[in-house]
Structure formats: C-alpha cells, structure tokens
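$ ./design --mode recover --in tokens.txt
reading tokens...
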C-alpha cells in the first residue's frame, strides 16, 4: 500500500478548491439584509391571539431579482418556529417548491431541540448513512454541519446526490455565526440545469455518473464511519439494498462503486434539476498539488474518491470546469444571523460553505427519504 503523502489530510483533500471570486457578486452585508427585513417584514404586532396563522408572518426577498431564498419572519414577538410550522406545513411546502429555499429569520427556535421539532413537522428525520463528509451527532438526528477546516471552501452540492437515496429536505440552524465569512451559499438547481450546455446535459443524462470510493488507509473516511457500523455484514446488506457494488481489500480497506443519476426530476414539481456530485468527487476538485501527490501515491482505481461517466470513461476536466462555472453563476451568498433557520428543498437548491474565521456552529437536519427509480 502506498505511503500517504504527508501534506494531505482527509479534509484538505475533499473540501475542494478555493473559489476566490465567489463572494464578490451576490453578497449582501448584514446591515443591508437587516434594513430590507425590517422594511418588508413590517412592525411587530402585539395582538397575536387575534391573528390567523398567516398573519403571524411576513415574507420578503433578500435580493429583489432573486426568488431564492424566500425570507419569512414573524410579525409578533416570540413566535415559536416549530409551533407555527405545525399549523402551516402545506403552505411552507408550497413556498418551498416555488422558491427552492426559505430563510426563517427572527423566530424563537428553542435551541437544537426546537430546530429538530421544526423539521419533524415537515417530514421524518433521517440518519446520515453512507456519508461523504465528517459530521458529529448533536442530538436525535441533528448533526454538525460538515466539519472541514475553516479555511476551506465547500463547493455547492445537493446533499447525497452521489447516491440513489437522498433527503428531500435539508435544514440548517445557525447557532453561532463566524466572526468573518462562514456563509452557506445556495444555488437554484433548476437554473444550474438550464444554464448548462444542452450537449453536456444530454451526455450526462444518458451516461449517468459512476462514483468510485476507497475507504481506509488514512486519507478518506474509514468505512466504519461512512456506514456508521463496525459490522462488515451490515455494510454488505446496506450496499446490496442500495445497489452499491463492494469489494473488501486487505488492511481493512473497502472499495465501493455505484452508478447514479446525473439529472433528476423533482417528484412534486416535475422540474428537471442538475443532481450529482461529479464536480466534488472528481480528482479535478483538488488543489493541483494535492491532486499530483495523490496520483503519485495511488493507482487510479485506488484513489480515495473519483467520478467517471457511468460507462467508466473519464469525465473531461473542461466539462467539470463548465459545471463549476454554472454553479458559480447561480450562487447566492448572504450573511447568517444567529437564530436563522434555512430550509432547502434538497433537489431544488444546492448549498456549500465559504471559508471563515472565529468559531462557528451551524447544525443540520435532513428529512423525507427519496429513492431514485430511474437507474
Ligand atoms: O456548514 C455549512 O454551512 C454547510 C456545509 C455542508 O455542506 C453540510 O453540512 O451539508
Ligand atoms: Fe452539504
């Protein structure tokens, strides 16, 4: 087994190349956002009791030209988010399907437990199995957001789009915002799909994407962490059910291979979205120096992760660059405020993370399992 290059650590390897231009175009400052919100969310009303559920909130946009995210805020003091959501599930979903994401700002969330209750009003919470990134369990099925080092940029992605099963909803709760940076940029996956060259779309739609992962050996996550078990039998059962090919190797290492969708149709809106993680798993996602080190240390098929077309042929670097350009073009960045809850339809909106300084705590919950029937 090859020696691991010293300069590489798990998180360095997989969080992606830094995108220095990202925050320029579409960032709003905290003050701008606040002003907009106080203008559009209106003044506080005191007679909460006499208001209907819908009158208890006001909506706005962060950027007039952009429907993502819809901002929802209370018109009364101390409005509990989970309590309000319980009475408004269907209008939340209607807005979510229209906008792709909703930022709930100014509510009383009630900490991590309240956040979990809020998600539960919208669907069953899911365990994070067949992981691709390190997270810690906070409580119940609430996890820390991806624990990649602060200086690294996490490229935009739809959660678990490297798999045939994914959550339809993902929500983030900002417990503590970073001193600087640490935004969770988002993008409309319908627009990413539309802005891609039709030939690229068609080629991917037809060939799909093959993800090859090698676990263990100290570079990527160990299989025990990815599958959340120490039992090889459980891993085998999981893979069989999920349509993942698996191969045990020496030294407690494991290789998996799976062909997954490149594009997908939203079950509710029937819209087509770009839905894969080829641009994250492909070796071109790495800084050139890291990529070079990995390629000298590992045979192609032993690389910790890589993505190919579904027929096993290589995906061209320039095509992945074009995909990244489309994500970049559609990226919306806004500063977090503590207490914010960002609910995304995981198929209609992609998310990422910008580098940050200071301590930051954003927790995540995923809900409503969906399986792709189309492979
Ligand atoms: O930390 C964040 O804002 C999001 C990171 C991420 O992609 C995730 O936790 O799924
Ligand atoms: Fe994510």
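writing sequence...
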């Amino acid at each position: 087994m090859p020696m691991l290059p010293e300069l590489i650590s798990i998180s360095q390897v997989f969080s992606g190349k830094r995108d220095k231009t990202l925050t320029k175009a579409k960032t709003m400052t905290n003050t701008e956002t606040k002003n907009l919100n106080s203008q559009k969310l209106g003044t506080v009303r005191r007679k909460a009791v006499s208001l209907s559920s819908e009158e208890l909130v006001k909506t706005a946009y962060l950027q007039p030209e952009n429907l993502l995210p819809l901002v929802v805020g209370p018109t009364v003091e101390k409005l509990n988010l989970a309590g309000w959501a319980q009475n408004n599930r269907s209008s939340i979903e209607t807005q979510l399907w229209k906008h792709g994401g909703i930022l709930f700002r100014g509510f009383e969330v009630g900490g991590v437990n309240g956040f979990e209750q809020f998600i539960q009003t919208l669907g069953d919470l899911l365990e994070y199995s067949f992981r691709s990134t390190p997270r810690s369990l906070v409580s119940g099925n609430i996890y820390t957001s991806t624990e990649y080092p602060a200086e690294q940029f996490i490229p935009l992605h739809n959660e678990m789009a490297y798999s045939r099963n994914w959550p339809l909803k993902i929500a983030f709760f900002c417990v503590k915002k970073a001193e600087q940076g640490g935004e969770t940029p988002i993008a409309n996956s319908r627009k990413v799909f539309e802005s891609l060259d039709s030939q690229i779309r068609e080629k991917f739609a037809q060939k799909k994407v093959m993800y090859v992962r090698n676990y263990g050996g100290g570079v990527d996550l160990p299989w025990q962490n990815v599958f959340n078990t120490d039992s090889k039998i459980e891993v085998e059962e999981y893979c069989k059910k999920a349509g993942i090919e698996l191969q045990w190797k020496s030294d407690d290492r494991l290789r998996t291979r799976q062909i997954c969708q490149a594009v997908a149709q939203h079950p509710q809106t029937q819209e087509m979205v770009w839905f894969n993680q080829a641009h994250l798993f492909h070796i071109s996602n790495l800084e050139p120096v890291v990529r070079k080190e990995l390629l000298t240390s590992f045979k192609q098929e032993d690389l910790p992760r890589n993505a190919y077309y579904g027929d096993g042929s290589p995906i061209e670097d320039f095509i992945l660059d074009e995909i990244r350009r489309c994500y970049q073009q559609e990226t919306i960045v806004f500063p977090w405020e503590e207490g914010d809850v960002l609910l995304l339809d995981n198929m209609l909106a992609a998310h990422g993370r910008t580098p940050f300084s200071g301590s930051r705590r954003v927790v995540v919950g995923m809900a409503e399992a969906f399986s792709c029937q189309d492979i």
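exit 0
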